[in-house]
Specification:
The structure is a single chain. A hairpin with a 5-residue loop joins β7 (417-425) and β8. The termini are far apart. α2 packs across α6, α7 runs antiparallel to α8 and α11 (215-229) crosses α12. This protein has 457 residues and is α/β, with parallel strands linked by helices. 47% of the residues lie in helices and 12% in strands.
């Protein structure tokens, strides 16, 4: 018997009884317990069934006392005519005081965490013994599951709608209290914020364009604005440009000094003063840069988990990323499979971290073949894989007709005008938005500020 008991998973019968007893003695402590514990945190089935009944009643603002709880147990099929009432009375008698409920629930929560950790370790060990996955893949699985435990979410499972509804109501309350404030992180462009309601949690946002259209510039505009004004950290993974190149672009946009002038270092006194001011602003911006060109999604995920108060992740760009199994292949089929796995992993990462991920992507040359019309990109132009369109919550294309006007054959084309095409938007409408383009500072502005382009800084 002792040997069998030694195989029991960690739990504390006394702590579970004391938590339930405290809730029966003093209903004022029920919100505190509901906030911290889920039904699966209780080890004994009888305790779990009782807590499920109280949990459900609390979610629907029902009166909670001995009579109503017994009726709820009866409705749930967990009522025993001979023992249920006596069991509730016993819980109230053995609980010393409801004042210590915080201590009791800490014990229950800790034992639940130990059980979940033991289960996760067992599952990973089983996968190791099967030998069907590579070490890198298993490491990613283990990191994801342990991170889920650290965040208090546990492994994914079925959840009753009754558990989801309170969170929805809480979110609606937050939105109502915010008033005109954006629910997501501002992009820094009013016209884009109105269309997207900002960059929202768990969204995968794809920003795609042909090389040289300015997609990196727009992404960095959004990143620096979020780093300045959101109060949260912004992580930028640049697989194309070095940290210094990114910094030079940001310095140009912040100081309003042309890139080519900064590159020479020949600045007058006024320009040096503006550089100093811009450098001071950038130094106090919570922007984190990584220019490792061989990063996988798992690497990014692991690094982001360690960032305190993360608000936005920017990846530049998708086609340069390394898949979990190695570098992207050159065969079309393997490359498509690799891109598909990367976009799926990015979407999962956004949901895990509960932050928006802005990922840049290249476009194919298909739209450039037709020279008789305006060559606006379409969803079918996304390069390498249809999974990009499938996994993304929002797809944005950048288009500048001046890009194709190399010989200035069409003088009616405004070189300072860009189109931001919202081709997919799970949260709202799609359409074409207009932006101002400042190539000398590699930055975008709202259309109402277009006149500023022609003014002195």
């Amino acid at each position: 018997m002792d040997e069998l008991l030694s195989y029991q998973l960690p739990h504390s019968v006394e702590a579970e009884q004391s938590v339930l007893g405290a809730m029966l003695i003093d209903e004022n402590c029920i919100p505190q317990v509901i906030e911290r514990l889920k039904p699966e945190d209780f080890y004994l089935r009888q305790h779990r069934e009782l807590y499920e009944a109280i949990y459900s009643m609390f979610n629907f603002s029902q009166k909670i006392d001995l009579v109503t709880i017994l009726e709820k147990l009866r409705q749930n099929g967990a009522y025993d005519e001979q023992t249920s009432a006596a069991f509730l009375k016993q819980l109230m008698e053995i609980t010393p005081t409801a004042a210590n409920v915080g201590i009791y629930l800490d014990i229950v929560k800790d034992k639940s965490l130990l059980r979940a950790l033991a289960q996760t370790c067992g599952e990973v060990e089983g996968m190791v013994r099967e030998g069907t996955e590579s070490g890198a893949q298993l490491l990613e699985v283990a990191e994801q599951r342990v991170y889920a435990l650290r965040q208090g979410r546990g492994t994914a499972g079925l959840e009753p709608l009754a558990g989801v509804v309170p969170r929805l109501l809480e979110r609606l309350g937050e939105l109502a209290a915010a008033g005109d404030q954006l629910p997501g992180i501002s992009t820094g462009l009013k016209v884009l914020d109105r269309a997207l309601t900002g960059l929202n949690k768990s969204d995968l946002v794809i920003l795609a364009a042909r090389p040289g259209m300015g997609k990196s510039s727009l992404a960095m505009n959004m990143a620096i604005h979020a780093g300045k004004f959101s109060g949260k950290a912004v992580a930028v993974f640049s697989l194309e440009m070095s940290k210094e190149q990114l910094g030079m672009r940001l310095l140009s946009g912040e100081s309003l000094i042309e890139n080519r002038t900064l590159a020479t270092g020949r600045l007058n006194d006024d320009e040096w003063a503006r550089v100093a001011t811009a450098a001071n602003v950038l130094s106090h911006t919570n922007l984190l840069l990584d220019d490792d060109p061989s990063l996988t999604v798992a690497d990014m995920n692991a690094k982001c988990r360690r960032v305190k108060d993360l608000g936005l992740v920017v990846v530049d760009y998708l086609q340069l990323m390394t898949s979990a199994g190695g570098k992207l292949g050159y065969e079309n089929e393997s490359r498509q499979n690799a891109v598909s796995s990367i976009t799926r992993a990015l979407k999962i990462m956004a949901k895990e971290l509960q932050v928006p991920i802005l990922c840049l992507s290249q476009l194919s040359r298909a739209n450039e073949k037709d020279k008789t019309t305006v060559r606006r990109p379409r969803l079918s132009d996304l390069r390498d894989s249809g999974a990009i369109e499938q996994d993304a919550d929002i797809v944005i294309f950048l288009h500048r007709e001046d890009y194709y006007n190399d010989d200035d054959s069409n003088p009616d084309i405004d070189p300072n005008l860009a189109e931001c095409i919202v081709a997919k938007n799970r949260h709202g409408e799609t359409g074409i938005l207009h932006l101002g383009w400042r190539p000398q500072f590699t930055s975008f502005i709202d259309p109402e500020d277009l006149d500023l382009i022609h003014e002195e800084p």
